[in-house]
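Researcher: Can you fold this with EPU in place?
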Amino acid sequence: MRGRLRVAGAKNSSLAVIAAAALAPDRSVLENVPLCRDVLTIVEILRALGVGAEFTGPGRLELDTRDITDHVASYDLCRQMRASFYVAGTLLGRLGRAEVPLPGGCVIGSRPVDFHIRGFEALGARAVTQHGFLKLHAPRLRPGTFFVPRSSVGTTINLMLAAARISGATVLQNVARDPEVVDTAVFLSLMGARVRGAGTSTITIEGTKDLRGARYSIIPDRIEAGTYLIAAAATHGDVLIEDLIPEHVTALLAKLAETGAEVQPEPTGVRVHVERDLRPIEVDTAPYPGFATDLHPQMAAMLATAVGRSAIRETIFESRFGYAIELRRMGGDIRIEGDTAIVTGVPHLSAAPVEAVDLRAGAAMVIGGLQARGETQITRLENIDRGYEGLEQKLRALGAEVQRVSA
Ligand code: EPU
């Protein structure tokens, strides 16, 4: 793959910021919002609650959140993605009550919501789980202090949302430090909350009932950027990824350099090029700023053709290995030992029909298919569409032969 590519706005920031906008009875304008399925899902969830939402230009989402007419979120929409749970923080903060379907388990792990619930309780909410819904009720929310038991992006954001409407200082300790948390904090500040410490392990929020709408541009998607950086290295290509924030992908860039890929900062982005065989490496996924679990499957697909034996230890989600069985169909040599994938490089992969079993596993199939000899067919594209805007156009612009074929 050769050429240059501009990264889209961050999906996971957009989901949180869109939910945050609905805290204020006002209007907001968001720019750089990626047009991917998860974003459309959160928009639909909010529309069903009475919010007006229109895409009025490329990446521009205008929200009219003056009226929220319901406190019960749709089961059919919420079950499609875990981030739907952010409406719990929004509705609780805005209306003092919320009924939100439990997101349940999903293919990458059990993914409970116990931290979210305990955090809401620390802010004065009563929480009951009934008929598959979390029901939250709080005639009066109060500021509180909550220690998040382990780094959790979702818990940090959900509690920030509710706290942004509570006057007095709420202190969240041991929180996630991810850029998406910081992005949400910046947006909440623009809305009128006082948020300090985002990006560190303690965040203090002084909220207000007088939140107002805001204009904001979402940060670039570090996972999308990382996916294309890995794809470029895997295909021994030469690609400049533009508009990403290099600090957001430090752990990835260090690992790519360790494989022998040439990683160069450029004025407009990061260039990666590879001229020789890649070396095997050891990777441990970790909370930000460590190596992102959301880049684990893609990295495995790249290492499938490195010369030697690599190991990827997964420390965030217990069943993130769904990609392995699919990469094996392409001739990949991947063995799972406990929490670790042992990837022994083969000289080349061979094209095969494979499934995108989840979003990032789907990205790994694309990277496998780009390297494989022959024509790879990937099904269950709806999983890839959850988080990648215009994937095939972007790949084609870099020289890949890729087509979406109807079923
Ligand atoms: N956890 C609990 N209890 C909770 C919440 C989390 O035990 O109440 C555990 C989880 O099971 C997991 C760990 O804590 O083992 C971390 O989970 P976290 O809450 O950070 O994950 P999340 O908020 O559900 C977000 C991203 C994921 C990304 C993870 C980890 C969004 C919308 N999702 O999920 O992104 O993998 O953080 O970085 O921001 C993706 O985009 O493909 C994706 C899955």
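Model: Folded with EPU in place. The first strand starts at residue 2 and ends at 6.
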